[in-house]
Write a structure and sequence with these properties.
The complex is a heterodimer of chains A (about 375) and B (about 80). With about 375 residues, chain A is an alpha/beta fold. In chain A, strand 8, helix 11 and strand 9 form a beta-alpha-beta unit. Chain A is globular. Chain B has about 80 residues and is an alpha+beta fold. Helix content of chain B is about 30%, strand content about 40%. Chain B has a 5-stranded antiparallel beta sheet with strand order 3-2-1-4-5, with no helix packed on it. Classes of the chains: A alpha/beta (about 375), B alpha+beta (about 80). Chains A and B meet through helix 1, helix 6, helix 7, helix 9 and helix 11 of A and strand 5 and helix 1 of B.
Chain lengths: ~375, ~80
């Protein structure tokens, strides 16, 4: 995501000559390895960029990129969507959300359908916009849907802190933020997916720093934190192949222009002040201990689930789709029986087809 | 959902200010990055700066890309 002048020109982040060189170097590394290699790109933004730029065509045939559970919208469970829809339809509150949540199906309806049934659902660019709605009309409850990983959670925390400081009592957040490293550990525990290396999320790591992936690397799985330009992603895959070839499993940072040692300590401290780790349900995967962010005691009054008596953590509806196995990287989107037929971006059955960052939507789009 | 872009800070008033997003002035919150000054670069995500950004590190990344290209050229020539 560089400024426009950085893109496409020779010597920039999309330089075709460099891409060809990286592809050749990957080919040699893969040849020396002499076996199949599966690399999981954890982040949904990476999934989208890989599909958009056709980056899989640069990989050696023995190297497979599989998508992981890194699309926050995709891993948000039915019960959370149901709670948000129920709240909007009941008229007890205005529900403010990032736009990509709108079409995600719950067990009954999506937020878009809740709005069609008269629910007050508004799309916002930032959690601060939700707070501004609350400030503009003190007689109306405003609830922000706190969905997203470590990239987004500090913004939500900072907004809650602002509401607390200003005494904005009609603002609250339905807590649904999640943290990435526990999910990677859970995928390795699960063992259903063969993973030789993790292409780790760039903007999550801007906040956390590279350190939290040490636990994964110490289990023998190399990690490289990648930026989002085509050459960033290709170079990170090359770095992973070289680690595998040399028998190393370390945390390396390709995206060092944004990811610093220790991450962003100020953002971390604000996040820790407002939230505390809790168990959290990931759609299709189940409850992962310590992978969610609930409110700390000092900020519990801003918990919309408590304020409105909402249960947002129950199990998912069985909708006959294989989202869970797709989210774990255990199968490719096309291996799901619904893919491209009963489930398309126009009529999505599961969340992986709804979000532009979902692995099914990305796979559908790259079919042309 | 984790989309974020490097942008230049144009003005600062307290913990907020304006940044340049592809030529458009956009409001930004600097609570998560502490002190910033006009002319600094930050990474912007959903209205918040989430990290300071040094353009020299981007130059260094491009230099590494060129190095890979040169090394590969040498490898192809059998050097």
């Amino acid at each position: 995501m560089e400024t426009r002048t950085d893109r496409s020109e020779a010597g920039g982040f999309e330089d075709a000559g460099v891409a060809a060189s990286i592809a050749a170097a990957m080919g040699r590394a893969a040849g020396s390895l002499g076996r199949r290699v599966s690399i999981m790109e954890v982040c949904g933004t990476h999934t989208m960029e890989i599909a958009r730029n056709g980056l899989k065509s640069f990989l050696p045939p023995s190297v497979r990129l599989v998508s992981g559970p890194g699309c926050p919208v995709c891993v948000t469970p039915d019960a959370y969507i149901d709670a948000a829809c129920g709240l909007a339809v009941s008229g007890r509150a205005m529900v403010a959300t990032f736009g990509d949540m709108l079409r995600v199906p719950g067990s009954g309806m999506s937020l878009e359908q809740a709005r069609a049934e008269g629910g007050d659902v508004r799309v916002v660019y930032s959690p601060q916009d939700a707070l501004r709605y609350a400030e503009a009309d003190a007689s109306r409850e405003a609830v922000f849907l706190g969905v997203g990983f470590e990239t987004t959670a500090p913004l939500v925390a900072a907004t809650v802190r602002k509401a607390a400081a200003a005494g904005t009592g009609n603002f609250s957040v339905l807590p649904g933020n999640k943290t990435v490293p526990p999910a990677l550990g859970a995928l390795l525990d699960d063992g259903e997916t063969e993973i030789d290396g993790f292409l780790c999320p760039g903007h999550v790591s801007v906040i956390t720093g590279p350190e939290p992936y040490g636990a994964v690397a110490s289990r023998g799985v190399p990690c490289v934190i990648a930026g989002f330009e085509p050459l960033d992603i290709l170079q990170a895959v090359l770095m992973l192949l070289r680690q595998i070839l040399e028998g190393r499993s370390e945390v390396e940072v390709q995206y060092f222009r944004a990811v610093k040692k220790g991450g962003n300590p100020l953002a971390q401290s604000i996040m820790r002040e407002v939230f505390e780790p809790c168990d959290s349900r990931w759609r299709g995967i189940g409850v992962i201990p310590g992978s969610g962010l609930g409110f700390s005691p000092a900020y519990r009054e801003f918990d919309a689930a408590a304020r409105f008596g909402l249960a947002a953590g129950g199990p998912d509806e069985d909708r006959g789709c294989s989202c869970g196995r797709v989210l774990k990287g255990a199968i490719e989107p096309a291996e799901c029986g619904l893919f491209g037929a009963a489930c398309t971006p126009e009529h999505p059955r599961g969340p992986c087809m709804v979000s532009s960052e979902g692995s099914c939507a990305a796979a559908y789009k790259s079919m042309g | 959902m984790c989309l974020a872009v490097p942008v230049k800070v144009v003005s600062v008033e307290g913990s907020t200010g304006k940044v340049d997003v592809s030529g458009n002035l956009v409001k930004a919150d600097f609570t998560l990055v502490g002190d910033v000054r006009p002319g600094d670069f930050v990474i912007l995500h959903a209205g918040f700066a989430i990290q300071k950004y040094d353009p020299a590190d981007a130059e260094e990344t491009l230099r590494i890309f060129r190095e890979i290209e040169e090394a590969e050229g040498a490898a192809e020539r059998g050097e």
